[in-house]
Amino acid sequence: MPKEASPVLEAMKIQKDKIFNDKRAVYGTLYGVETAVVICGVGKVNAASGTQFAIDCLDATKIINLGVAGGLNPSVEVGKIYSVSEVVQYDFDLTQLNGTKIGTLDECTENYLPLITAKGFEKRRVATGDRFNDSPDDYKLLTKELNADIREMELGAIAQVCMHANLPCSAFKIISDIAGSGSTTEQYLKNLDTCFLSLKNNLEKIIKSV
User: Fold this and answer.
1) Helix (H) or strand (E) holding 13
2) Element (DSSP H or E) covering residue 92
3) Among the four 103, 116, 144, 163, which has the fewest Cβ within 10 Å?
């Protein structure tokens, strides 16, 4: 989302700022590294198309996904940033057809896709789905069956595109809310500023770690 990109854009030395296929792409340098920021929008389709655009049109050599996300267990803290070790799409289900675990893509044998992790950050597993809710059924699936630590709405699609493009993919998630601590929506809105400050304070470390 644009507000998630703001701390990154504030730190960039911007050279170009353009709109392509309704997605904003900002070019420049970030702590001395040539960088382009693509603001994809919410959800897996937006994330996948933005990632493919970065690969095809911006000649990306590495994809780094940044964003806020929800925590699923006490191993994560609000406002803290985690390096993602692997990601699964929990709303992708070919179990009845292929007999595979939930989240296993038709072109894969395992449901979790590995990512490039970063030194200096704790590592957690992420589950991606096109849902923002407080559903007990989703929570049971995410924690009991998939053993995920964090949930969000984009990374699984980004990782899938990078897998097919044979491109390195890293992701960092800032926790905005934790399941079981009240309304997800209320926590999310209350903690956004804390998350963005954390991203601002850790951005240089993120860029240099990958």
Assistant:
1) strand 13-20
2) none
3) 144
Q: What is the pTM of this model?
A: 0.94
Name the packing angle between helices 44-57 and 155-165 (round to 10°). 30
Helices (H), the chain: 2-11, 44-57, 95-98, 136-140, 155-165, 184-209
| Planar angle of CA 49, 54, 42, nearest 5 degrees | 40
59: CATH: 3.40.50.1580
Q: Which residue type occupies 106? A: D
Cα separation, 35 vs 17, whole angstroms: 12
**Model confidence over 46-71: pLDDT tens digits?**
999 999 999 998 999 999 999 999 99
What token pair was written down for 5?
Answer: 């990109």
Residue type, 180: G
Residue whose pair of structure tokens reads 């809105």 in the numeric block: 189
Phi, psi of 126, deg, nearest 5: -120, 145
Domain range for 181 is: 2-209
Other CB atoms within 10 Å distance of the CB of residue 157:
26
| pLDDT tens-digit series, residues 154-204 | 999 999 999 999 999 999 999 999 998 888 889 999 999 999 999 999 999
Measured CA to CA, the distance from residue 38 to residue 109 in angstroms comes to: 30
Residue 119 CA, chain-centre distance (Å), reads: 18
Of 44, 5, 49, whose CA–CA distance to 23 is shortest? Answer: 49
Amino acid at 12: M
Give the span between the Cα atoms of 95 and 35, in whole angstroms. Answer: 39
Tokens of 188: 């999310």
